[in-house]
Amino acid sequence: MLPLAPAPRPADPAVAYQTARGRLLVGRAEDLLAAPALDDLRGRVQLIFTSPPFPLLRPKKYGNRQGDEYAAWLASLAIPLTKFLTPTGSIVMELGNGWNPGTPTVSTVGIKALLAFQEEAGLHLCQEFICFNPARLPTPAEWVAVRRERVKDAFTRVWWLSPTPTPKADNRRVLTEYSGAMRKLLQRGTYSSGRRPSEHKVGRRSFLADNGGAIPPNVLVPPESDTPTEPQAVLPIPNTASRGGYHEKCRTRNVPRHPAAMPEPLVEFFVRFLTDPGELVLDPFAGSNTTGSVAENLEREWVGFEADPAYAEASKVRFAA
Ligand SMILES: C[S@@+](CC[C@H](N)C(=O)[O-])C[C@H]1O[C@@H](n2cnc3c(N)ncnc32)[C@H](O)[C@@H]1O
């Protein structure tokens, strides 16, 4: 009798490329999250930072689910993703607004999907952030620029979730510049004390410690937006982790740009805020791999998943010298 052939090993995920600190895997998040080959990553990820395919009015090239089907799909990933986290880890998810087809009304699918995701894995909403981009084009064009019945849609919603109400986080790593008023106050050394309309009681020396910078708010503004605001009013996220811009690299190397690449400073803010160097960051919808390249530059380990082999291949450009 012939010896039995060994059972076939589950295929190892395809690696698009590898760097000093990370690797980009080609495949669907739902498949890779269940892959036995990634068992060594379970329980080790400090931050999952991602921007899933949005539920859009018109599907983009990579094809998006719509409506309740979208919310159910996103929620189905909550438990598998949470299994990859350390006990103090975080999931940060960015989602843009979608509009209902043919009407000037905003779809609630994105909000429903975030809530369904949170509830499915019993996650805590640690904080909601708004990523404000005043430089956005006046869209949806039909309602904003043609009929003039709506104002332009200029923000995306970012949810910070965790299995614990007290995930690892340190806002001293993301301090922003003091406002002019605060700098004057620190020089003067006294504060007009008394009860504020908000009922808070303010002492003469309250808020006078110079902590090297202001605690940022939860409204984030990428630097290219040119917003004329006091730095403390909204956080113009500094862009220190990027070595040469992604757009510039795509242009000079003739690589097509990903249609939904995130601003690098947005990723940088959360990587600094929620992880230490050497810790592991995962993006299950990597796209142009903004997350991996920022993590690499900030000396974090990283893993990315991307379903579209062409996007995976094109994202190599971020690591070009
Ligand atoms: C909004 S984009 C992410 C953009 C990315 N944050 C960046 O900065 O470039 C979503 C990405 O998810 C990919 N995608 C869609 N469905 C997927 C799936 N099931 N698993 C993994 N990737 C998927 C799309 O091809 C697309 O590149």
Structure explained in plain terms:
- By secondary structure, the chain is α/β, with parallel strands linked by helices.
- The protein is built from ten helices and twelve strands.
- A ten-stranded mixed sheet has the order 1-2-12-11-3-4-6-5-9-10, with helices on both faces.
- Helix 9 links the parallel strand 11 and strand 12.
- Helix 2 packs parallel to helix 4 and helix 8 crosses helix 9.
- It starts with 13 loop residues before the first strand and ends in a 7-residue tail after the last helix.
- 34% of the residues are buried.
- About 3% of the residues have low confidence.
- Bound molecules: S-adenosylmethionine (SAM).
Give a brief rundown of this model.
This protein has 321 residues and is α/β, with parallel strands linked by helices. The chain is 25% helix and 20% strand. The chain folds into two domains: 15-176 and 215-319, Rossmann fold (3-Layer(aba) Sandwich); 178-212, no CATH class.
Task: Label this structure with key terms.
single chain; 321 residues; alpha/beta; Rossmann fold; 10-stranded mixed beta sheet; two-stranded antiparallel ribbon; globular; binds S-adenosylmethionine
Strand numbers in spatial order across the main sheet = 1-2-12-11-3-4-6-5-9-10
Q: Helix content range of the residues, please?
A: 10-25%
* Number of separate structural domains: 2
Shape: globular
Task: Show the helix and strand layout.
Elements: E1 14-18, E2 22-26, H1 29-32, E3 45-50, H2 67-76, H3 78-82, E4 85-96, H4 109-120, E5 124-132, H5 141-146, E6 155-162, H6 180-188, E7 194-195, E8 201-202, E9 219-221, E10 235-236, H7 246-253, H8 264-274, E11 280-283, H9 290-297, E12 301-306, H10 309-314
Parallel strand pairs: 2-12, 3-4, 3-11, 5-9, 9-10, 11-12
Antiparallel strand pairs: 1-2, 4-6, 5-6, 7-8
Helix pairs in contact: 2-4, 8-9
